[in-house]
């Protein structure tokens, strides 16, 4: 515990010092880097895909010709922080079901709870040096973990500093609870994140997924995003570079992304924000299985179709349909709940059955919104 604290303080100082040397402020029109693509993409065993990071050894691969070396510096010295980080890593002891809103998943090989940006960066570098596949996890409210767990490194992101830099402009650590941020901004008289009330994820997860509800989306109010790349470099990306779309951000395809570290939101003043949020929360309570173990909507709403995924599933007669311990919610057909010790196999079988049924009845192919994390990555 004490060791972890010392570790964090030391690395935090290094991080802040190097950040101030390396990065322009997000508010002062930084020279932005294009998104270089370096590492190989992870194939998945299911169409329920997940982008986790498969690392090439620094010594092994050629640098990408697209990579621009710019003002962003490598964050820490070569070996700095490494012995300390080793002392904080749990091996084969953390069960992913504890970290997932579905309550499903086996153990991960390595686990670290990161509470400072510098610690997150050091963990990325630790994995890279050892060619360990890794996953940055927020609140696990959009992930399906495998029963066998994850044969790699899970960094539980709890980087949760918040700074109000000017009225309506919030620079927030990516591990900050998104629900809490939405409630706070609305209560402080700013509009744009009312919908975040009730979303049980982190800021990083919300930006990665472009989470949204009630005609609002995360990307609409993002000003800039600070990331760390696979090379341990810090970059600041502006909203225009992030291709936000329906439950989509450029991060989902960004092979060089190691982790989202902080996000700056620019909100507009509104005296009605709290009232609007109250109405959104009320609708949530009426229409969603609050208190049950779910991961929110399993499928994206199909583009071009007149009906939502939930409505299609309901019309296919599948509300309440169960496989093992996994069930289509009786309250909202696009929420699947772990009602009785569901395994990942139960949930995958249920997802697959619902897809087939909807396809058969409506000739519409549903696409998963949730991310499946397979046990092993393959080259
Ligand atoms: C009850 C309930 C209600 C929900 N309602 C909504 C809703 O209204 N709208 C909506 O859009 N979603 C909703 N969701 C889904 C989910 O909460 C959101 O997608 C949320 O944004 C996920 O955040 P997370 O931190 O839990 O992400 P995680 O599940 O931890 O991760 C999701 C993905 O993001 C990546 N990721 C997370 N953090 C980082 C980071 N710092 N750097 C890089 N990658 C990262 C992960 O690697 C993973 O690929 C709901 C879920 C539940 C359980």
UniProtKB/TrEMBL annotation:
Its cofactor is FAD. GO terms for cellular component: cytosol. Keywords: Cell cycle, Cell division, Cell shape, Cell wall biogenesis/degradation, Cytoplasm, FAD, Flavoprotein, NADP, Oxidoreductase, Peptidoglycan synthesis. GO terms for molecular function: FAD binding; flavin adenine dinucleotide binding; UDP-N-acetylmuramate dehydrogenase activity. Pathway: Cell wall biogenesis; peptidoglycan biosynthesis. Residues 103-270 form the FAD-binding PCMH-type domain. Its EC number is 1.3.1.98. InterPro entries: FAD-bd_PCMH, FAD-bd_PCMH-like_sf, FAD-bd_PCMH_sub1, FAD-bd_PCMH_sub2, MurB, MurB_C, MurB_C_sf, Oxid_FAD_bind_N. Pfam families: FAD_binding_4, MurB_C. It is found in: Cytoplasm. Gene3D superfamilies: 3.30.465.10, UDP-N-acetylenolpyruvoylglucosamine reductase, C-terminal domain, Uridine Diphospho-n-acetylenolpyruvylglucosamine Reductase, domain 2. Coiled coil: none annotated. GO terms for biological process: cell division; cell wall organization; regulation of cell shape. It catalyses: UDP-N-acetyl-alpha-D-muramate + NADP(+) = UDP-N-acetyl-3-O-(1-carboxyvinyl)-alpha-D-glucosamine + NADPH + H(+). SUPFAM superfamilies: FAD-binding/transporter-associated domain-like, Uridine diphospho-N-Acetylenolpyruvylglucosamine reductase, MurB, C-terminal domain. Cell wall formation. This is UDP-N-acetylmuramate dehydrogenase. It comes from Musa acuminata subsp. malaccensis (Wild banana).
């Amino acid at each position: 515990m004490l060791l972890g604290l010392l570790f964090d303080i030391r690395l935090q100082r290094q991080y802040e010092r190097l950040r101030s040397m390396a990065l322009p402020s997000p508010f002062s029109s930084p020279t932005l880097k294009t998104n270089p693509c370096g590492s190989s993409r992870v194939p998945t065993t299911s169409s329920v895909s997940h982008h986790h990071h498969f690392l090439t050894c620094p010594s092994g691969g050629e640098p990408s010709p697209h990579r621009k070396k710019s003002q962003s510096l490598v964050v820490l010295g070569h070996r700095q922080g490494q012995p300390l980080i080793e002392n904080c890593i749990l091996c084969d002891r953390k069960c992913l079901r504890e970290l997932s809103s579905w309550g499903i998943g086996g153990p991960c090989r390595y686990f670290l709870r990161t509470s400072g940006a510098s610690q997150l960066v050091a963990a990325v570098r630790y994995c890279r040096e050892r060619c360990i596949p890794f996953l940055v996890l927020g609140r696990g409210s959009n992930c399906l973990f495998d029963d066998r767990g994850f044969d790699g490194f899970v960094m539980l992101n709890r980087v949760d500093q918040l700074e109000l830099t000017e009225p309506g402009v919030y620079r927030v650590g990516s591990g900050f609870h998104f629900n809490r941020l939405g409630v706070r901004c609305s209560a402080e008289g700013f509009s744009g994140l009312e919908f975040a009330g009730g979303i049980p994820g982190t800021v990083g997860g919300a930006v990665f997924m472009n989470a949204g509800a009630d005609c609002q989306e995360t990307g609409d109010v993002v000003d800039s995003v600070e990331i760390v790349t696979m090379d341990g470099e810090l970059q600041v990306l502006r909203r225009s570079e992030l291709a936000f779309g329906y439950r989509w951000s450029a991060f989902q395809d960004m092979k060089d992304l190691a982790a989202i570290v902080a996000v700056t939101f620019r909100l507009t003043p509104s005296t009605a924000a709290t009232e609007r949020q109250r109405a959104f929360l009320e609708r949530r309570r009426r229409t969603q299985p609050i208190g049950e173990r779910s991961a929110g909507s399993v499928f994206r709403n199909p583009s071009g179709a007149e009906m939502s995924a939930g409505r299609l599933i309901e019309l296919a007669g599948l509300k309440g349909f169960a496989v093992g311990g996994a069930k289509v919610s009786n309250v909202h057909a696009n929420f699947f709940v772990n009602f009785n010790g569901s395994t990942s196999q139960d949930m995958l079988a249920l997802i697959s059955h619902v897809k087939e049924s909807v396809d058969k009845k409506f000739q519409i192919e549903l696409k998963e919104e949730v991310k499946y994390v397979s046990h092993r990555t393959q080259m």
